[in-house]
Amino acid sequence: MILNEFIKETQKNQMISTLLKHYKVGSVKMKQKSMKDHAHYDVDRGELQLSTRYKTLKDSQIKEFLITIIHEIDHAVDSKKYGWKRFKEMYEFEMNLQVQAGKNEYDDNEFEIKAEKFGQKNWKQWYSKFKKQNLI
Ligand SMILES: [Zn+2]
Fold this sequence. Notes:
- The protein is mainly alpha-helical.
- It has 4 helices and 3 strands, in the order H-E-E-E-H-H-H.
- A hairpin with a 4-residue loop joins strand 2 (39-42) and strand 3 (47-51).
- It is elongated, with a radius of gyration of 16 Å.
- The mean pLDDT is 94.
- It binds zinc ion.
């Protein structure tokens, strides 16, 4: 690993830990996993999963990275608020509701819509903060 890569990896981890602390989800179960998405909240396990596949971020990946992390953090916030088992039940209930209405269990899922709005609404503010801190 060259020094520049090491610095970038550190900065990426610093952004993640800043976000987790800010939204107070540090106590939610967490796992590092090699996966395509930057992050994923596993409803069945009540676990926030962070990708180890991207050690560093290219400029073109930063927006998607921030939206994804903030989106998944919204699920983690709900999981903390309701307790992960209850949130799992609520999420599954919502999935069934959408399926019964002939809609899509994810795209029309109120938790997914809320999380995506949260990500879209907040990524820019974090982008400027992290830019000022020379993290990106
Ligand atoms: Zn989601």
